[in-house]
Structure formats: C-alpha cells, structure tokens
C-alpha cells in the first residue's frame, strides 16, 4: 500500500471523486494535493484543513519548486487533470506531465544514491478511445467521429501521455481508460483489461482510480478500463453522449463555431 499519494486536479469532477474516496477510507496514508486555487478546493471540501494527513500545494503548475515539494517522498501519483470541450488552446495535461517529469528528474538528481527509491506509480486518466485492443469491436467510423468530436482535448491528453510513458525510469504509468463520463450517482464499477461499456459515472471513476492506486495487483498493468455497473446500456446514455458529439463535430468542422456559440450563449443569458 502507498505511504503517500499525490493528487493532481482535485477540483475537477474526477479529482473530487478521487479525493472524497481517499478522505473517507480508513487507511493511514498522507495525501499531497495540487490545485491552482486553495480557496476553490476548501469550498468543495470545507473540512479539509482539519485533516492531518492532507497537505495542499496551491500555485501554478509550472512552479518547479512547488511540484517538487508536492512529489517529495511520494510513491503514487494520481493524475486527473483534463478538460472536455473541443476548443483549441489549452494544454493542461501536457503542462502537468512536463511539470511532473521535470520535478521527478530534479528530485532524483538531488537525492543521495543510497536513499533513492523505486520510481513512483502514476495513475493517469486517459480514454478508452485510444485503446487499440478495442478497435476490432468498434466501427471505424464511430472511432473517427469520437476522435474528431473531442480532437483538441485528445491532442492534449495524447501529448501528456506520451511524455509520461517515455520516462519509465522516472515513473511507472497505469492508464485508466473509461468510456463516456456521465454525471450520475455511483452504481458500482468493473475494472477490466479487455472489455468496456458505454458509460462511467464520475464517482465510480474516482473510486476505481483509488483502487488501482492502492491495490498491489495492478502494479505493472499498463492500462485498465473502467465501466459503471449501470454503464453497459448504450441506449441509456444516448441523450447525454450524442449532443456532446454533435457539438464537438461542429467545433471541428464549422469555421468560427465557438465564436458563434459563445455569442449566442451571451445573448441568451
């Protein structure tokens, strides 16, 4: 079991679910939490300041000293940084991956040879869309449409993933590859290396990521997929998934889509 976990992205929906599960487990683990805004985190977790095993590191992800402090003596990292809208520009995941590698490289250089530890495990939020083992079970047109509908978030995800996977001497990565993420209550979850459903709730995703982080049987497993127990019925989620795909495709194919979208949104509000 890990002694100290670092969590990046605790104020997003996945990160909130991960942190909530870590705080409610009766386990002796220190939790280092990275956020850009501590006040936002405390708004979400008002009792966090009274948790003796929780330590908050707030600031810019490019602050190498801050990230080194976050990762000092950490044996497991849970990475939930990310975004969903198909807008060009953000590089949240890539920036986070570069910051981790830079910090770990600095820590390794500054540590005495006889005190050096094994590389930490990193539990990384990815997507089942990029699990090549599933492609013989998925229509190629469907894969292309999903990848186009979320083109920009996926470019950021893939950039960050490549950076981390290329540094096996510094960090050991396990990819968490859920299907569509759904805002609904937990229904239980399945963790698998060869099958996946249509949807996964944020609470189920958070608990599953903590399980993968804590359980020794997942060490050395390069990727797992997570599905909510209620997530195998694709028709159940059509009304949630299809509008997001349509908007994402329009953003990729229609010039000036977000300009028009945001203008209409402002006028409507």
Explain what the structure shows.
- Belongs to the avfA family.
- This is NAD(P)-binding domain-containing protein.
- InterPro entries: NAD(P)-bd_dom, NAD(P)-bd_dom_sf, Polyketide_Oxido-like.
- Residues 9-193 form the NAD(P)-binding domain.
- The chain has 269 residues and is an alpha/beta fold.
- The protein has one domain: Rossmann fold, CATH 3.40.50.
- Helix content is 42%, strand content 17%.
- The protein has 9 helices and 10 strands.
- The chain has helices spanning 13-24, 38-44, 64-71, 92-110, 140-149, 151-165, 202-214, 238-253, 257-268; strands at 4-8, 30-35, 54-58, 76-79, 121-125, 172-176, 180-182, 189-192, 199-201, 223-228.
- The protein has an 8-stranded mixed sheet with strand order 3-2-1-4-5-6-10-8, with helices on both faces.
- Helix 4 links the parallel strand 4 (76-79) and strand 5.
- The longest helix has 19 residues, at 92-110.
- The protein is globular.
- The N and C termini lie far apart (49 Å).
Number of domains: 1
Helix content: 40-55%
Distance between the termini: 49 Å
- Biggest sheet, spatial arrangement of strands: 3-2-1-4-5-6-10-8
Report the total helices.
9
CATH homologous superfamily caption = NAD(P)-binding Rossmann-like Domain
Strand content: 15-25%
Q: Assembly type of the shown chains?
A: single chain
Extended strand count: 10
Q: Give the biggest beta sheet.
A: 8 strands, mixed
Key features?
10 strands, 269 residues, alpha/beta, Rossmann fold, 42% helix, 9 helices, eight-stranded mixed β-sheet
Topology:
Layout: E1 4-8, H1 13-24, E2 30-35, H2 38-44, E3 54-58, H3 64-71, E4 76-79, H4 92-110, E5 121-125, H5 140-149, H6 151-165, E6 172-176, E7 180-182, E8 189-192, E9 199-201, H7 202-214, E10 223-228, H8 238-253, H9 257-268
Parallel strand pairs: 1-2, 1-4, 2-3, 4-5, 5-6, 6-10, 7-9
Antiparallel strand pairs: 8-10
Helix pairs in contact: 1-7, 3-4, 4-6, 5-8
